[in-house]
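Appendix C reproduces, verbatim, an entry submitted by the partner laboratory led by Prof. M.T., so that reviewers can inspect both the input and the predicted structure.
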Amino acid sequence: MVAPTDREAVDLEIYRALERGDKDAFSRLVREHGTHIYNVSYRILMDRVRAEDVMQETFMKAYSSIDTLEDPRRLRVWLVKIAHNKSVDVLRRDKRAEARRTAHEREVAIEDTAPDRAVGDGERRALRACLEALPPEKRAAVLGRFVDELEYGELAESSGEKIDTVRIRVARTLPELRECLEKKGVKL
């Protein structure tokens, strides 16, 4: 048997505390994973308020259905999957609502997804625009892989898709991003 990582050990400890009904377990769950879950939702939704709402919904769903978690050491991945699905559901609802509305576009607030501070504002704006133009599942896959640094297996698990599907999606999206950036004058 493989020894659990520190994160897995913490997840297992939180899971057991939740099972026992420990009154502080939910707070610890949110403290341990809140920022990461918020970032997952934000990168998909690109809206702070809705990302906070999804984060709260994610933790409420996790708390109410903790008994359905098959591998307690994978609590974080399970939470990411819930947040991902809830975020995509929000985007689908938006798309349906947008189809009914005519002249109204929602404003999008995009947090800095370019971690390298040497990147200029022009390049950062171009990257934001190119990421925003991607369909949600492509944007989530690329950001999950390169910003959240999730392995392909974790991405597949969090999205409920096959690992090969996720690998292919990332591989096909990168040239699209490159082309978009080049069209915006960014030298790669």
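The chain is about 70% helix and 0% strand. Additional entries are available on request from the coordinating office.
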